Input
Amino acid sequence: MSGRLPPAGRWLLHRAVGAVLVLWGAASLTFLVLHLVPGDPVTTLLGASATDSAALREEIRHEYHLDDPLAVQYVSFLGRLVTGDLGSSYQQQQPVSLIIGEQVGDTAELALSALALLVVAALVTATATAGRRRRVRGAVSGAELMAVSTPAFWLGIVLLTVFSFRLNVFPVAGAGDWRSLVLPAVTLAVPFGSLLAQVLREGMEAALHQPFALTARSRGLGGTALRLRHALRHAAVPAVTLSGWLAGGLLGGTVLVETVFARPGLGRVALDAISGRDIPVVVGLVLLSATVYLVVNAIADLVCLWADPRLRSPV
Amino acid sequence: MPTRPAAAVAATTTALLLSLTACGGGESQGAGKGGDPVRGGTFTYAAAVGTSCLDPHTSPGDIAAVVQRNVFDSLVQLDAKGRLHPWLATSWKVSADARSYTFQLRDDVTFHDGTPFDAAAVKANLEHIKAPATKSLYASALLGPYSGSEVLGEHSIRITFSEPNIPFLQAASTPYLGIASPTSLKKFKDQLCAGGKYSVGTGPYRSERYVKNDRAEFTRNKDYTWSPRGAAHQGPPLVDKLVIRFLPEDSVRAGALTSGQVDAAAVPVTSAKAVRRNTSLRLTKQQSPGASYSLYLNTDRGPLRDERVRRAFQQSVDVDALIRSIYQGEYERAWSPLSPTTPAAYDESIKGAVRHDPAAAATLLDQAGWTGRDAKGYRTKSGERLALHWPFIGALVRDQRDVLAEAVQAELKKNGIDLVRDPVETGAYFERYGKGDYDVWDNAWVRADPAILAGFYLSTNLPSAGGQNVSHTDDRQVDSWLRAGAAEEAPATRETSYAKVERWAVDHGTVLPLYVPVTSIGTTAAARGLTFDANAWPQFAGVWKNTK
Output
């Protein structure tokens, strides 16, 4: 016991320090950028509708400590963050934690169901088409390419027109029951799922050409079993590496999808906060998405370690 | 000094306004009549925009007013014809100097939380609006030069102002000065913006739930017996539940309406024709009072300091043709910075004040010394191009105003004027607004009173001071007309004062009025009882559905 941590402990410590640095960097950068771009938050907040604005301006400036020097603001901002206080929204005059807390559920529901949908769809299409005849493979891959480049906005409107306005199968929008979740989740899942399917298929095809595939076949393993038991595991590493990006894409995608389907959620909160220079809300959202990134990447690393034992050997 | 009873004022106003508004309106009789009203059910309306704050005492948004009208009643009511009616106040007297108002209040009204409505509640509301901590972005400006209120009895109150304030009654009729339960103002001090159960008024509906960007839900106030006398529907609402959905996408809103998922929806001008063609839907339109959609020219900077250049700007644009071709008859061309449906204000003779006359405009530009031409064909003076800057926020452009802007640009180009549109983000937009760093600024503003002109033309209301005098007009005569307008009680005299301002504004090239904004609402065949108020905002107190 010479104060040295076991490897798992070291790994965790390493991760934790990295996470703190990332969060600190993200918060600082957001804070700085929002303070440095032209325009004054108080002016933006007041807009063009208030008379008697000198007194009001003073009041707002003082209440949000915008009259302090930037360095002082920054230090007290960090101080509050450390104690877990995200501050209060300028526009909504409510605590940021409350605003995020109220809407995070709707976004998580949308992003997670889209994620489940896209992973299942990608697994099925990739397994079914990897190494198949050229024509089948070409057609599917072409369809995927089209899906990747389809604007979510347009797709959402088309789905709504067909399934909500014409067939009346799903409600136009909102949140609450599963029926209102279907169309937004599909809209969000299609482009990302197509991309994931392509990556998975390529990984599987590469694996199928490796010598072990021949060995396995010579033992009498069927095509599907080979794909599922061996090729998939090989393909998992590049696909999982994508997941960090995927998490970001899904969160970003909710902005559009939430707008088209008029769903409550963080995407639209972010849009309003950014255009309104609502600094506390923007910082809160940046911290939240940075946390999501960190968690997703940590899980992705663990999954990779499980999928590919070669990565486990210490260098 | 004797005081004049309110009834007399209302009567004069009425007589005058009837004659004025008869020509404005349009298809304004609300959505369908017919059939015996059906009790029960849910009525759903789809609005185009949401809001970050639902406290009408703080938020300036039209939507905050439309949503919260259901919850908050006002002291007085202004009907679609511009007539004042008693509401929470049974009567009122205006002092001869228009600096003090004495209201007698109803004694049978209770807030949704059980708090009785009385003079102290009114005082608490006005004081709440004026308190800096409320951060009122509009209500405080509407309340004007408020100096205090005195509770004269349990149901009697005197409100005083430091200057004459004739526009006060109209202001008092808006949801922005709606009366909230004083208990809620104290108890939910920090949550008023959040709406939902924090919004407690005396209105026909109780506010139940507000999910930002999604919906606001209301239930029927079965005890509601104090409908304003001028309202089409009296007594408690017919439906059990009212839902206002926020659907920002035009096509989605239109689809929700055609498929019957909502009973009524705000219809963008681009879908008005489609709604009208659809036999199962109905389209109702009402012109908004207040400031029409206009381009204001900054008289305090660059080439537009010269009135000849401003006049040339006005005459270069064929407004008639542009509005007709872009809006296909849905919008009427505006002649004045004031909308024709603004009560006690609009002067018909202003029609034709700005003529499309490119030849005359060219002569004016020559006289102003803009005689050179550069390689691109724009006029120059001492080697400098006649370029004008117009900042805008791309994300907020609606109503095909971008198409209109391009058309105006093309018209000006023919006369060698380079109108440059600067896309900027919100922060920079309002910074330029405050500093006067622009040549052209576009604006429209709903208010059912000509006092809106004071916001745009009083010399002390510069953007840097929080006002909307975007043309930087600084004219003693204009100021005196505007002050007189705020001090004159007789509508006829008011009209004369404001008409002078309208005429002056157009003649001196401070503004190019473009079109009169319109509220259009599509309703399904079953929807009944939707009406418009004086602001052309939809009213839900009497809605029901003909389910037969």
Summary: Chain B touches chain A through 54 residues (CB under 8 Å). The longest strand of chain B covers residues 146-153.
